[in-house]
């Protein structure tokens, strides 16, 4: 397992971009795409599929349905149907008041020796914005938000017996809630399969908001403190450069369902491809001085953090707007924002780079 605490990932990415932009690891039997052009090509290739999710025999019927129905985890015609369901959901989500919900989360917290931005805000705000935008009542919102840390474990490839024991009743409860609100919004007007896709992709929105939203809010705050002091800026630029320079999601995987020819090499059917998005975002063929955080960069919207093609992130505008509004609120309401840590510990996950704790103080 990669240790973000001990690894200079930017140095590794830079070396691979220069020496091995498309590389086959003979030990892991896996391709790794680092170059921007290579990553873009594979993300958009019709033969590059999302690997199928791991579905344990002991997972409940609703849990199994959830894993098989999320747009993020599906391919082909099933993906088209799941993505249509997810897009219908996004069309119904109201714009929630970021500043108001942020104030509620911060209420009574900003005293003493500071507080943990991760637990108080970053893990809470994304899902609470979604829940508010979907008109969940306070009790149901609190239930989902408080249990999301356990619900996201359904994405683990090797869930323990204890995970399954927690997940089965939890998925069933949240599924029933989602069904109720989807019905109230007038979304359940199709057949059984269509309605199940709507409900499962509503749960998928909650699940996907957790790590990616948390990471973006933490990294944006760190860059706001480091690069935004004394500025009256368009904070969208800071967020967009954060997504390029310091993204929460570093890589994604695909499996070749047919041979894929790329850059004079052949990725054979059945082989796994690791697409290193964070390395592509540092490719000097696309981004001048890529190791420099640059608020004036004109083309950082070309970053690949949200993916491309049919599996590009549907929540990308939601994420950018959320983080930019948070920066606007913080810059407008506090004259001093301090990061109280000199060192950070990261979650032991390969595809995302997430700080476990971010102690801050505002004044």
Task: Give the structure's gist in a few sentences.
The protein has 363 residues and is an alpha+beta fold.
* Structure classification: alpha+beta
Unreliable segments of 5+ consecutive residues: none
So what's the overall shape?
A: globular
- Helical residue percent band: 40-55%
Strand order of the largest sheet: 1-2-8-5-3
- Describe the main β-sheet briefly: 5 strands, mixed
Terminal Cα span: 39 Å
Radius of gyration: 21 Å
Number of helices: 13
* CATH level-3 fold name: Cytochrome p450
The CATH architecture classification is Orthogonal Bundle
Could you list some keywords that capture this structure?
13 helices, single chain, alpha+beta, five-stranded mixed β-sheet, Cytochrome p450, 10 strands
Characterization of the model:
The chain is of the alpha+beta class and 363 residues long. The chain contains 13 helices and 10 strands. It has a 5-stranded mixed sheet. The chain has a 3-stranded antiparallel sheet with strand order 4-10-9. A hairpin with a 4-residue loop joins β1 and β2. α3 packs across α10, α7 packs across α10 and α9 packs across α10.
SSE layout and pairings?
Layout: H1 9-19, E1 22-25, E2 30-33, H2 36-43, E3 48-49, H3 61-69, H4 76-92, H5 98-106, E4 115-116, H6 117-122, H7 125-133, H8 138-151, H9 161-184, H10 192-227, H11 235-245, E5 252-256, E6 260-262, E7 265-267, E8 272-275, H12 277-280, H13 316-333, E9 337-339, E10 359-362
Parallel strand pairs: 2-8
Antiparallel strand pairs: 1-2, 3-5, 4-10, 5-8, 6-7, 9-10
Helix pairs in contact: 3-10, 4-10, 7-8, 7-10, 8-9, 9-10, 10-11, 10-13, 11-13
């Amino acid at each position: 397992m990669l240790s973000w605490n001990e690894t200079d990932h930017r140095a590794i990415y830079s070396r691979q971009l220069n020496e091995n932009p498309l590389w086959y690891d003979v030990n892991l039997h896996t391709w790794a795409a680092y170059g921007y052009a290579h990553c873009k090509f594979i993300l958009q290739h019709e033969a590059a599929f999302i690997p199928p999710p791991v579905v344990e025999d002991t997972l409940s019927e609703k849990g199994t349905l959830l894993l098989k129905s999320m747009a993020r985890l599906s391919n082909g015609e099933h993906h088209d149907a799941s993505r249509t369901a997810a897009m219908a959901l996004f069309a119904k989500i109201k714009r929630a008041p970021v500043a108001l919900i942020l104030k509620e989360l911060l209420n009574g917290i900003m005293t003493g020796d500071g507080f943990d931005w991760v637990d108080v805000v970053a893990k809470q705000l994304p899902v609470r914005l979604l829940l508010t935008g979907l008109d969940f009542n306070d009790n149901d919102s609190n239930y989902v938000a408080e249990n999301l840390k356990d619900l996201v474990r359904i994405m683990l490839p090797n869930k323990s017996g204890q995970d399954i024991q927690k997940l089965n009743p939890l998925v069933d409860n949240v599924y029933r809630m989602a069904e109720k609100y989807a019905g109230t919004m007038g979304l359940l007007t199709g057949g059984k399969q269509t309605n199940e896709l709507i409900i499962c992709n509503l749960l998928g929105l909650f699940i996907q908001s957790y790590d990616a939203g948390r990471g973006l809010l933490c990294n944006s705050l760190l860059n706001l403190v480091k690069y935004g002091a004394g500025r009256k800026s368009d904070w969208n630029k800071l967020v967009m450069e954060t997504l390029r320079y310091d993204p929460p999601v570093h890589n994604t995987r695909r499996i070749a369902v047919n041979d894929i020819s790329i850059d004079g090499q052949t990725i054979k059917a059945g082989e796994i491809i690791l697409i290193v998005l964070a390395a592509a975002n540092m490719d000097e063929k696309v981004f001048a001085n890529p190791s420099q955080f640059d608020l004036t960069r004109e083309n950082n919207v070309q970053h690949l953090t949200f993916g491309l093609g049919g599996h590009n992130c549907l929540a990308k505008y939601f994420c950018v707007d959320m983080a930019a509004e948070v920066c606007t609120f913080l810059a407008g309401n506090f004259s001093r924002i301090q990061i109280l840590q000199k060192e950070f510990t990261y979650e032991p996950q390969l595809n995302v780079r997430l700080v476990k704790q971010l102690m801050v103080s505002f004044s």
